[in-house]
Amino acid sequence: MTNATQPIILTGDRTTGPLHLGHYIGSLRSRVQLQHEAKQFLLLADTQAMTDNVGRHQKVTENVVEVALDYLAVGIDPDKSTIFIQSQVPELAELTQYLLNLVTVSRLERNPTIKEEIRLRGFERDIPAGFLTYPVSQAADITAFKATLVPVGDDQQPMIEQTNELVRRFNLTVGREVLVECVAVLSHVPRLPGIDGKAKMSKSLGNAITLGATPDEISKAVHDMYTDPNHLRVSDPGQVEGNVVFMFLDAFDPDTAAVDEMKAHYRRGGLGDSVVKRRLNERLQALIAPIRERRMQFERDRAGVLEILRQGTMRAREAAGATLSEVKGALGLNYFGS
Fold this sequence. Notes:
- The structure is a single chain.
- By secondary structure, this protein is mainly alpha-helical.
- It has two domains: 8-192 and 302-330, HUPs (Rossmann fold, 3-Layer(aba) Sandwich); 215-296, Tyrosyl-Transfer RNA Synthetase (Orthogonal Bundle).
- Helix content is 54%, strand content 8%.
- The protein has 14 helices and five strands.
- The strands form two sheets. A three-stranded parallel beta sheet has the order 1-2-3. The chain has a two-stranded parallel sheet with strand order 4-5.
- α4 packs parallel to α14 and α10 (215-223) runs antiparallel to α13.
- The longest helix has 29 residues, at 302-330.
- The model has no long low-confidence stretch (mean pLDDT 91).
């Protein structure tokens, strides 16, 4: 178990679908390591996922267990990391309500992350209120556990800045240090594109390789991967930059010297796409096979997985409840002495 002097980390995923290799390279591997170095809370963000899935709530709830299975399959240990369900910790919703009083609508609309996500979803001015205010919900998630470190991508830095703004505003308002500021832990791993070359890898876009993919699904995905459209013959010089196969090899092939040699050969010509894809397929099959096997083992005991989530959620409620009690006390909302 983690030592009380260790840093507290909060991280998590929206429960809108099974996790894929983009999640694995971007965060899951580091979370497995971090659980040995810090007190880690892993949030299954179903409440947040509801903010832009109106009418698709069943998809959100069904994927809670799917994401939990992925966590367990990659090596998250529930004895070292607290895995919990956001919607089942009502203390987070109450803390969100108090923090909402400390931020304006115009400040939320200026948040670069929110602005970009509103654009991507085509909301324009028809923005669901829950979606607009989810940075405050995220701030509650972080501050409820007094997390000091929050692993995020570059695009999420504005969310951490807004969290710290709210922490400072709250502490100034009540005249004492109650909530704790956090630090963004940035991933140094480039974001993986989809197998079609598009910037975003997503199961819903059909351009992702999930962590539970079968051997045939992996082989088909690699076969369909975007390479260099001008590399028509084996003898033609090929372009490595923007070539999805080489981007995946950079991410998953530990033999960097061999990959560098393949890149040089590809650039000068004489190396076919099929050879490069064959190597990548071998690497991905070896990587995913044990993850898939562990996932299948956990899936056979879904009741056991739900029990892990129940216990983790109880621990999360205890931690969040302690912070909420401090917050309510600082605001004078402890009418009955508790």
